[in-house]
């Protein structure tokens, strides 16, 4: 009788306890070879393809597209083929299988007629609204503190396969396949424009806009004769997003699941205190890059008062002040909140900062940023004023000690020698973890930010 092995969902390198199935690249009965793509998985930060650690016939798969799998739970069962190459038991697979307490973690399993392996329920959320079993499905305990969700994360032997892989004759990145699925585009009917016949994000978006690759062609709209002109009626309210489901309970997925965890952690751990003040930026030349000036000011203030550019580890009772300033930029997206790392802010000129901001913005939009760009920042910045609001109480997420928010720019009348003038004002809100810093340190840091922002250049 052939030996069967369970493949456990590995740590995908982001410190998160689960991942969502985007697309199975194999089906039960298929023969898969060592390191061939097995499944596309979406975490809170990226879409990655997970390769098979075995060669043989696929006998079971855990869940379907849209199901959430707990890290360390079984993902697939493979009946080993002795005639195909196998990885030695002691050889590093590049995956993290070391989640104690999970039965069959790379070990032979007996022939079983059903999925039940007697341990944690794998599917914790389902498009079908499946039941979550109480007391099961909890994330396995990790060795070491890798639980910082939006902040510094420990590196691991992550599975990061970002190459375009041919599936069903179509070459595409995992994120492109996920986008096609979301836009209901048949990726097999999309004309590729990338190198070596790779389907790109732009190809999928163009096909969706043109309707040229829809799974089912929509019927043409019936001709409607023009109506006689009438008095203009009030503008109708904005149309609702057709992809939004109303009046029903939907499982929280992906980036928003991460947001739930990180905000809950921050609320439970941090002792937040917020200082607010205004920077008078009337001396700026026209066309100044607001974000580039903010980032420069954070780097300058960190040199004056390093207490805000730090990580606090309450469990170990340690505080690490950083010599370099890595700014976590809060980026709003339809999928939820991303925090991307703009590294070495103090060592970049304004043009470099703008190029990096554009790269980060496009990477979030296309879901193409690697996990390394979504961690290890030393302080955080939110430019919420581009939407609305002057002041706020931004949330500090451990292990960071501080976050600064920039509110909506406005004009205010200010007294000057000999009279009154109208100046442009930038509201600032600094939230810091009072466990790790004093009020004086925070106030000096905010003062240094304001001083740099108020310079003409």
Automatic annotation (TrEMBL):
Keywords per UniProt: Acyltransferase, Lipoyl, Transferase
Cofactor(s) it depends on: (R)-lipoate
One Pfam family per UniProt: Biotin_lipoyl
Domain (Lipoyl-binding) ranges: 4-79
Residue segments, region Disordered: 86-149, 228-250
PROSITE patterns: BIOTINYL_LIPOYL (PS50968), LIPOYL (PS00189), PSBD (PS51826)
Classification via InterPro entries: 2-oxoA_DH_lipoyl-BS, 2-oxoacid_DH_actylTfrase, 2-oxoacid_DH_E2_comp, Biotin_lipoyl, CAT-like_dom_sf, E3-bd_dom_sf, PSBD, Single_hybrid_motif
EC number(s) reported in the record: 2.3.1.-
Keyword Acyltransferase found: yes
Subunit structure: Forms a 24-polypeptide structural core with octahedral symmetry.
Protein name: Dihydrolipoamide acetyltransferase component of pyruvate dehydrogenase complex
Organism: Arenimonas terrae
Organism lineage: Bacteria, Pseudomonadati, Pseudomonadota, Gammaproteobacteria, Lysobacterales
